[in-house]
Amino acid sequence: MDMYTPSAVLNEQHIIRESISMPNSPQNKNIGATLDKLFRYTTMFFAFLVFILLFGIIITLLVGSLPALKMFGASFFTSTAWNPVTIDFGGVVPIYGTFITALIAMLIGIPVSFGIAIFITELSPNWLKRPIGVAIELLAGIPSIIYGMWGLFVFAPLFADHVQPWMNDNLGALPLIGTLFQGPPMGIGMFTAGFILAIMVIPYTASVMRDVFEIVPSMLKESAYGLGSTTWEVIWNVVLPYTKTGVVGGIMLGLGRALGETMAVTFVIGNAHELSASLMMPGNTISSALANEFTEAVGDVYTSSLITLGLTLFVITFIVLSLAKLLLIRLSLREGKQS
Predict the structure, then answer these.
(1) Would the pTM count as exceeding 0.85?
(2) Given CB 3.0 to 4.6 Å as the disulfide criterion, which of 17, 58, 187, 328 pairs with 156?
(3) Cα(10)–Cα(16) distance, integer angstroms
(4) How many of the other CB atoms lie within 10 Å of CB of 185?
């Protein structure tokens, strides 16, 4: 009962007033300002750390590639030679292989990813959406070396026994593009590497597309259906225009993954420094060449040639991402003008 005496109540009110007025004291204000400034400078350092790391990587690659660039000059990017014995190196074969495998991956992966995302968001029953979404996330989490082993031990024999003979017989005789599908049924090669890359980029691209499709307001789609539009018309005229920026971002994410993938491609591409018009023949990419030969490189020129390939891959990726960013900016500006 003593706690309810007038003196106790007055004492409690005094304590409450002191606790409320404490943050307003000059000392606490100084401490708060100091902590706020420390927090601002810490986060600023973390932000600029990205630029520091980026410039550090660029400088390291430039310095490491100087011996090869001084010895071969621009001919490094026009020569198909790769002979460590005679110290004659050129980057055409791995650069060509990088572009071709990435192109195959995107030609296969974009339509499949688009179909998966549309089915999940627009056509799938509710009980099936979560299992498919979980399966996509699991595919994205599988290590690349597992994809490479599966491609080498499962897909390559299947491709050699069934797919490649069929492509030789039915597509190899076509005019203009027939050369792309001719070759001995070895199972490994450029097309196999591109196909494995397509399976690897599908989870990333499909996940981004699904997320952006889900943010489309239901009112827009219901209004289109109310006007008599079909499902395809709603997707093409409502969903895609509303989410085109996110869709392009997802495609660029998959392309970046395809350009830089290493271990899975190393398993199935054949790792041969040979330039061939046939997609069935073995080839090489920048990443697979680095993975196979960097530990065995002897001499400054050999090592520098591999580092030059790494610098080339860095520049290619930077250009691709920069073009994607410019495209997204243009799309955003067009949306602003329309509104």
Answers:
(1) no
(2) 187
(3) 10
(4) 16
* CA distances from residue 147 to 131, 157, 265, 267, 319 in whole angstroms, order as listed: 21, 15, 9, 9, 27
Angle, in degrees to the nearest 10, between helices 286-293 and 300-338: 150
Tokens representing 53?
Answer: 């790391």
Cα 117 to Cα 123: distance, rounded to the nearest angstrom: 10
Nearest CA to 241 among 320, 339, 322?
339
The pLDDT of residue 5 is: 56
- Those residues whose C-beta lies under 8 Å from the C-beta of residue 309, and which sit 6 or more positions away, are 91, 94, 95, 286, 289, 290
Residues lower than pLDDT 50 in the chain = 1-4, 9-10, 20-21, 339
Q: Are 233 and 177 in contact (CB under 8 A)?
A: no
If you ran DSSP here, which 8-state letter would residue 59 be given? H
In contact, 101 and 285? CB cutoff 8 Å: yes
Q: Where are the alpha helices (DSSP H) in 227-282?
A: 231-234, 240-260, 263-268
Could you tell me how far CA 162 lies from the centroid of its own chain? 31
The three-point CA angle 54-60-64 to 5° equals 150
pLDDT one-digit tens code per residue, 77-124: 998 899 888 899 999 999 999 999 999 999 999 999 999 999 998 888
